[in-house]
Structure formats: C-alpha cells, structure tokens
Design brief:
The chain is built from one helix and 18 strands. Helix content is about 0%, strand content about 55%. The relative contact order is 0.21. The chain has a six-stranded antiparallel β-sheet, with no helix packed on it. The protein has one helix at about 185, and strands spanning about 1-5, 10-15, 20-30, 35-45, 45-50, 55-65, 65-70, 75-80, 85-90, 95-100, 105-110, 115-120, 135-140, 145, 150, 155-160, 165-170, 175-180.
Length: about 190
C-alpha cells in the first residue's frame, strides 16, 4: 500500500493552458504506454481535453462548481455532484465548459480491452483484492491504514498484491474507491449456477 497527499504531488501544466495535472500513480504497460493511470486534474478554463485513443476514462468531481463535457454526436454530460463518477472513451474529442470557476477532478485511465476501472463512492472499509490494483481517495472524514491516518485530499493506492485495509474512523468519512482489474485474465473465467 502506497500513500499520497495531493497537495504534495508535483504539478504539470496542460499544453493548452486550460489546467494542470497531479499524477498519483502510473502502472507501466507495454512499450511506452500504461496499464492504468490515476491523477487529480484542475480544469481552469473552457477548452478541449487531450485525446487518448484506446483508453477508457472515468472522472469524478472533487471540488468546484462543476463542468459540462460534450463531444459531437454524443449527449453532453454535466458533472456537478462531488463524488459521482462519469466514464467515457478517451478517443472522443471532449470539450469542457466550466459551470463557474475552476474545478478539480479525479481522473482514472485504463487501456481498453486489457484493464477496466470501477469507481464508486464509499463509507466502508476498503481491502485490496488479491492480484488487483486500485486507489482510495478521501473526500471527507478520517481514514486509517496501519499507522497511517488519512484526511481529505489524501489516499492510498496499490498495484498487484497488497496487504492491509483502509478503514473509516468517523461517521462522516467518505471516500472514492477505484477498483482496477485486468480484464484479459477474466476472459477465460466462467460462472456456473
């Protein structure tokens, strides 16, 4: 289990000047690609998102007045509720329109056909699944893993086998949990009733 504090992560400005990214985790893949990547982005201006062909993306509003995402021939989606994930194809030419000032989002990207992410809001203990990868991002309250206590804007991530759990310590504790799985390994499995 690896821990992070978004405030302490290096900031990389976007090439188009419309925001910045703080990378939480990057799981290298074949060649120059990645299996999955997690980051927090600040969307500071209206404009296009970078295209990521062959990548599936899930973004979740963390703070701010929200953003509307639109693309040709695809219905626009308003991302206005903190903690509500939205998934879309990185192939699409997405354009962001802010609802007010800048907003901050959690961005999970996975290589399509090989990896997939399920992002959900949780108030329950999170235990990494054997062989799985994932992330827990604290939205509110206090959480603990071993001797490490986490508060809003902090979290933990794992890639492969990891021991331990992240447990809420207060009734108001809420987090985002991203479970990331290898879908290639799942293709040969069958369910029997």
């Amino acid at each position: 289990m690896r821990f992070f504090d978004v405030a302490a992560l290096p900031v990389s400005p976007w090439r188009n000047g419309g925001g910045d990214t703080r990378e939480i985790a990057y799981s290298p893949g074949e060649g120059h690609g990645f299996r999955w990547r997690a980051s927090v982005a600040t969307i500071a201006a209206d404009g296009p998102f970078s295209a990521f062909p062959g990548v599936d993306r899930t973004i979740t509003l963390l703070a701010g007045d929200g953003v509307t995402l639109s693309a040709d021939a695809v219905p626009a989606h308003e991302l206005v509720r903190v903690g509500e994930p939205f998934s879309f194809s990185g192939d699409l030419p997405i354009r962001a329109s802010l609802g007010g000032g800048a907003c901050r989002v959690l961005n999970i990207m996975t290589m399509r056909g090989a990896w997939a992410a399920d992002v959900r809001r949780t108030a329950a203990e999170t235990t990494p699944r054997a062989g799985g990868s994932g992330l827990l991002y604290v939205l509110a309250g206090t959480w603990q893993s071993g001797a490490t206590v986490l508060t809003a804007g902090q979290g933990a991530w794992w890639d492969g086998d990891s021991e331990g759990a992240v447990t809420p310590l207060a009734p108001d504790s809420v987090a985002l949990e991203a479970g990331i799985r290898n879908v290639r390994d799942m293709r040969g499995l069958r369910s029997y009733a």
